[in-house]
Amino acid sequence: MPSKTRNTGLLTQDPVSLPSLHRFLVLFYCSLLAIAASLPVKASGQDTSENDDVIKVSTDLLLFPIRIRDKRGQIVRGLEQSDLTLKDKDQVTTGLYFAPGTDRVAIVFALDQSGSLREIISQQQDAAIALFGRFSDRSSVAVLRFAESSSLVVPFGRDPAATRAAFSFNVGTNQRTAIFDAAAKALRVFDDLPRVRTERRIVVLISDGLDNASQTKAKAVIDAALEKRVSFYVVHLPLFEPREGRLAVRSPARGFRELARETGGNYFLVGGESGDALKLDKTVDLAPIFQAIEEDLKSQYLLGFYINETARDGRKHRFSLKLLPSGVEYSVGRLGYSRSHDFFVNLPSGVTKLPK
Fold this sequence. Notes:
The chain is an alpha/beta fold. 19% of the residues lie in helices and 31% in strands. α3 packs antiparallel against α4 and α3 packs parallel to α8 (287-299). The chain is globular.
């Protein structure tokens, strides 16, 4: 049964046509642009040491964060490469990369400075610095603020004083808000960083979810995030509206939740769906949410495939990866959980040199 294909950069999803969601297709559409996304870029404002595991130009490594769980939905720790089995009849892969957790992160805090969020966000200075500080000293942080337009107020670095100051700002009056434009700009902030294999790249987006000015569509941001290997962690400070005789959480802009759910991150609604508007005052503490982000990152694994030069023949080559322990399954990107996933690689023929 034919199905439509959605291009998502390095991930192209074929909706599953079987009644059972036992098996999913994760499609590595390896265009030249996709390969370029995994290559090192000259750093701006950040040096790399000799110990940094920078991805070399000569290596085609497709690398993705994955989540692994057991039958009860609990996180599975302690797995090793010997717990994986790769079936590759065309021999287009030369090996696997598999590493638990993450110790090195590059974080962009994207802060909504419209409306009445100023006091709530300014109180999160210590929690934000604590989140950043719990990763290795090779991690870096940047801060972007936005309303109708976006501005990078702190470029990538390790200055806690600058980060702290960026969480304090004057609130804009009667400003429109462009969340998805800001999310797209946050992705571009990563462009000047070198590609480091063990580094996770995330955007922590804090907003009320109201977008009334973006020119960029949510889907375009999600596709770009998947291509750039950036995950969004969305923290929703909700607005409220009268509904059926009570105040209820106002639905955010379409695609706001999906920024997190389809890029390998997480969505957090402060106060929950049944949150009481009277309790969501100016003393909100996001520290538990930031801690959950840390735990989520450190509980994931990095899975990568080294692609053989023989794959550059313009043909589609299929391979699969299965977890050996019983009762354990994994998810990739926007796809669901399964014990085994099928992949394919499709490299153009006649290309012998990677783009610089």
